Amino acid sequence: NVQLNWINDATYSQVLVRRSGVLIATLGGSATSFVDVSPPAGTLDYEVVGVCLGGIEAAAVACSIGVCATPTGLACSVTGSDVSLTWSNGASYSAVSVYRNGVLLATLPGSTTAYVDSALGEGSYMYAVEGDCGTATSGSTTCMASVVAVTGGFIRGDCNTDGASQISDVVYGLAFLFSGGPASTCADACDVNDDGVFQISDMVFQLGGLFSGGALPPTPYPSCGADPTPDSLGCDSNPGCP
The whole model's pTM is what? Predict the structure, then answer.
């Protein structure tokens, strides 16, 4: 909304409000304010004109303002300790800002319509998304998400079940696959790329994430959680996720 305020210099019979040359309101002569509800996005030029007796218009008072449409449809979904946000942009933004509990979390490219907030602790979180149209900022669209502490489950990549995904898990997995090492009590954790099979490609995937900027393991990672993609692998015992 755009709030207009002014001071009358005479006793008017009515006050006219124009937006970009188009009359949008005819008010009583004593009016000194007006709210333009849900105006179109863009740079808007407003004029306020007092009409004296006899229909004579006084000189207009004018102002300009940039209006940026608010994003819509913000949805929060929780998977383990991750919160996924999706929304629709209301304009062609120069940037999109994501806030968690009132604190700026991320500034994203203007075309972005999704974001994942990862590895959160247990609690309730308020998210807000705003768009920037040059120097103008939109209103906020908000949603709430509650993260519940997970007991049991596993951490993807924690093949040796010590509570972390690290190089020792690669060594453990390779030993099982190629040199008679012990089998993991949580084979699902060894399926690092989540393709439903524990094999050498999982160890390659894990090394890429650890040392060469490759993708990180899919959920559940880096906290304990359940496997969102059912497969034939099991997890009989996992001390790393009591």
Answer: 0.55
